Every structure is written in C-alpha cells, then in structure tokens.
Amino acid sequence: MKSDDSSVGNLEEEARKRKERLEQMKRRLNNENNDSTSEDNKLVLPKPIFRSYNPTDEKLKENSLPKPKPESVEKQIEDQLTVANNPQVLDEVDLTSLAPRKVDWDLKRNLQQKLDKLEKRTQRAIAELIRERLRESSVVDLATATQDLEATQNNVDFDED
C-alpha cells in the first residue's frame, strides 16, 4: 500500500510542476503580447501616396503625387517615318532558302511513327508465314523456304508498281 501512496504522491507532485510551468508560459506570452502592443503603438504608420486619387482633405493633398505630363513622341514618330521612307533593298536573295521543302514533308513527319510500327508488324507477319510454310511442307532446309518467300514477295512488290 505504501508504494501506491508514494506513486500517487509523485503523480500529484508532477501535476503541480506541470501547472507551474504552464502558468510561467502564460505569463511569458502575456508579457510578450504587452510588449508587442506597446511597440505597435510606438510605430509610425507610413504616409499614403496618392497617384491617381485626388483627396479632398488638405493634409492628404500634400501626399499626392503631381500629375505626370505626357512624353513627347514626336521624335519617335519622325524616326519611324524616316525608316519607312527609305526602304532597304536586299541585293541577294537566295531562292533555295525561300522555297519550301517538299509539299508533303509535314505529312511524312507525322506518319513516320505509325509507319515504323507497321514495319515491325510486317516483319513479324513475314516471320510467321515462314514458320507456317515450314510446318506445312515439313521442309528442313530453311534457305529454300526463305528464298520462296522472297520470290513471292518480289512478285507482289513488282505487281504493286
């Protein structure tokens, strides 16, 4: 029983210490807040500067900026007119640099990826046809089977032209 009483005493003592620390923290925060509010009262607010607003109060009119005067653009206009009146003539014009590439260069560029995919599929299909012919004819000689396929392919290419 004594051990229970001593542990309860320790818990009460720890709780009391915790309360004291909390009270100290509250006092510190209150002191800091009081210091900051007193500093805020001491700070001088910046004076407003009015660019486009025309205040009616005389004290505020002192803070307004004078109205800006428009800049003279006459010199800039004269420069532009002199440039426009004296056109520069190019002596040499390279017509090859002006001519477009080929008419369908952009179409080829856009289709190139699709054509690459189709080429891979075509190669796979050709390989599959070779395998099927080998199975059907049970020809052991791979060279003759590939020559037969190339010959049929050449005939098909020749017919397309």
Topology as H/E string? HHHHHH
Relative helix content: over 70%
What does the overall shape look like?
flat
Alpha-beta classification: mainly alpha
Q: How many distinct helices?
A: 6
User: What is the number of E strands?
Assistant: 0
Strand content: under 5%
Kindly report the oligomeric state of this protein: single chain
What would you report as the Rg, rounded to the nearest angstrom?
A: 47 Å
Question: What does this molecule look like?
Answer:
The protein has two domains: 63 residues, no CATH class; 57 residues, no CATH class. The mean pLDDT is 79. It has 161 residues and is mainly alpha-helical.
Concise synopsis of the structure shown:
The protein is mainly α and 161 residues long. It is built from six helices and no strands.
Write the layout of secondary structure elements.
Blueprint: H1 2-42, H2 58-61, H3 74-85, H4 95-98, H5 105-137, H6 142-160
Helix pairs in contact: 5-6
What structural keywords apply?
161 residues; mainly alpha; 6 helices; flat
